[in-house]
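Agenda item 2: NAP complex prediction
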Amino acid sequence: MPTLLCVPIMVLNPDEALDDALLARARGAEIVEYRVDGLFKGRDDQADVRAIESLVADSPLPCIITCRPAWEGGEYEGDEDARMALFEHLCGLDRPPNYIDIELAALERTPGAHARISRMFPPGSDRAPALILSVHDFDHRPGDLFKKLSALRSADAARVHKVAWRARSLRDNLELFELLRERDRPTIALGMGEFGLMSRVLAPKFGALLTFAALRTESATAPGQPTIDELLNLYRLRAIDRETRVFGVVGWPVAHSRSPHVHNAAFEAIEENAVYLPMPVPGSGGGWEHFKATLGALLDDARLDFSGCSVTIPHKEHLFRFAREDQSRDWLIDPIAQRIGAANTLVISREHRHSVHNTDAEGILAPLRARLGALQGRRVAILGAGGVARAGAVALADAGATVLIHTRTRPRGEALVAHVNELQGPHEGKASLAGPDDLRSCEVIINATPVGMTGAEDSASSPVAEEILSSLHETTIVFDTVYTPAITPLLRAASERGLTTIGGGEMFIAQAALQFRLWTGRDAPIALMARVLEETLPG
Ligand code: NAP
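Presented output:
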């Protein structure tokens, strides 16, 4: 049976809840969960049982009734006897709900609950409602998970199992998928929070009974719950099946990355059975260790069909190191990644060796070649000496350009110049440090700092002083690698002076298109990818 898309609705007002259920149906949900504990919020009397009855009777979609107690993260603070009585009443209705969710912990902490639940949900009965027996942990993977699983399995009344915990790393998803693979009855297994998104999107790949999506961003009933629009349109939930290959962007932070929009749209356009997800791996507190453990686990889980990823800040050097140090697999490091000493693309191959690449280099070269043709002998200034500057400096020097590095931190600039100049062929080193005045003699100026980027400290400023910009030759090309916003203060000032400009979006698409080709063996739908990027960017 295909995985159902369920929208949870916190019921504060039954009429509004029914309106939300109608909207959920219109947007593609197949089932709703009414969180009736919302009706008890801030009340010391009993909620109106008739209101819950009408909600079930008038529901435009099959429904789950949940009355989550405060001791399991819900709003219900009344006594257990009354809660069980509510469930008994619902079970006796002519038109009962399809499912009732009751916590495993209720069986353990409420005297007599076992017997009452067995009477409500006679084992072997296939009549509605069906019992969803659930386990939640809002902090982390339950320490006694195996004990809880065993208790779930021995509860004959349960027709569905639900296990949800706050995922603390991507690896939690792999264990949730294992639970789905080993299920002995319909199962829901979800990771809460940013790290758990993968479990929600890939639920159909592993045969989950359902996955939850919020109707609106603000109406999520669990941390990190995606919206129905994201699940259906960004991650294409309906297209995910057992065979779907899994890609993503590994980095920190990645929640706001545009790469999932761009790559998922491209996969859809060429009808590739693949999905691309944000894959958060923290960078602080042992970034290399986090990266190594996570990538190793993703690679080892054959049934995940993990097929490759983009790697961004702060893990590009970690990917390169992983490929160099990992003894248990056979790796190919492409020459430009080798020369840069960092990689941003991983390709996993079933037939050949796994490989790592640096497509940032192509992201910088392609837009320049499109304007200038050969880059041999061109004078190019790069502002900054970080990862993008290094990729650009090595790629440009390899293409025969003279590279001038302008940085605020001299030792970092010197280290980059030394790195480029110590490389052997195809072109011998051609980099040097530059002061602001040297920019005037350059044919190209590339900003590889975050200055001008939305959210950066100096988002309103330009990395090139006014007097320098106004003294540039009219044929100078100003290339800003920053792509949020699409038009940075530098690009605006340069185009006002009639200079040719290249935005970071063009670099982003050029490097993404090469990744796409490496993963699929097919040309990327570049115009579509550029349009999708533009639609998701501010200004
Ligand atoms: P990085 O490794 O952190 O390097 C940033 C560089 O910028 C460092 O040299 C840093 O100098 C310098 N810098 C930072 N703030 C500065 C300031 N206020 N004034 C002058 N210099 C400053 O970052 P990265 O990975 O190279 O990325 C650089 C930029 O490239 C990003 O901000 C992003 O916008 C852009 N980018 C674009 C794409 C794309 O596809 N278009 C892809 C990746 C990145 P210090 O050493 O002195 O701190």
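Discussion summary: The first helix runs from residue 14 to 27.
Owner for follow-up: CH.
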